[in-house]
Each structure stands twice: as structure tokens, then as C-alpha cells.
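Hi F.,

I've been meaning to write this up properly since the lab meeting, where we talked about keeping a consistent format for the predictions we share between groups. The idea is simple: the sequence comes first, exactly as it goes in, then the C-alpha cells exactly as they come out, then a line or two of notes. No screenshots and no reformatting. I'm using this chain as the first example so we have something concrete to point to.
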Amino acid sequence: MKRLAVPVLAFGALAACSDRGSVGPLVDDVAGTYRLAAYDGQPLPAPAGSVIDGVSRQLLAGSLVLNLDGTCSLSETVVRSEGGRSSTEVSLSECLYQDHGAGRLDVQFVSGSGPAFVQSVSYGDNSVVYLDFYHAREYRRVRP
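Output, unedited:
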């Protein structure tokens, strides 16, 4: 099994070639389950963004699953606090990815609360780094 250095991935549109979309050449090494380890360089739990209008968010957990067939899913658990009250929110997004090798993926979200546009991601050394606008999420591979 080869190991890759952590490069930057780009999310992009995928052309349709099946009912789930295009899945170009895949590198078996990237497929797997990854656990969210850090948000903006801070280990979890970590503050998720700024406090806005008295609402704070704490990112507790997350996972990224990259399947061999080019499908993927992203989930996050966040505690939202406002005025002394807290609630837990879980988000799940389905996506498609195309592996171009050399640590670069194109990813398109197809459902859930995930973005409907291009984002940056990188993979290698048993980790995936996902950038959304100004925030970085680092996922580490879960070994069976």
C-alpha cells in the first residue's frame, strides 16, 4: 500500500455517468472512514466559528466516509448555545468524489446541509484536510 503526502484537494463539479454521478479513476488508498480530529488546528471539542448574536457553536465530533464507488458522506455533531440553553445538532451530507491521485479530489455534495459548490480538500498520510471558506477540518483515518 502506498502512502501519500498531504496535498490540497479541490471540490468541483462531476459529470453525470450514472444515477449517482461520475466516479472517475479511484485510488483505493483514499477510500475509508475518517474521524474529525481538529478544527482550525484545535483538537475537538473546538469552538466552531465566532459567537454571532449571542449564539456559540462547539464542534464535538465528525466523520468523513469515502467509499470505493465514489460516493461519500460527511457528518458533524455541534452543540449550539444561546442564553444559557444548549442543543445538539447533527448534520449529514452525501457527496460524490473523483480521485485524481496525487492527493487531489473533486467532490460534489448532493444532499444534506453540505455546500452545493466547490471546496478544497487534501489527502495523504492517513488524513484528509477539508477547507470550507476560512475553516480547516482535519480528519484522520479510522483503522478497523
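Notes:
The CA atoms of residues 15 and 22 lie 5 Å apart.
The mean pLDDT is 76.

If this format works for you, I'll send the rest the same way.

G.
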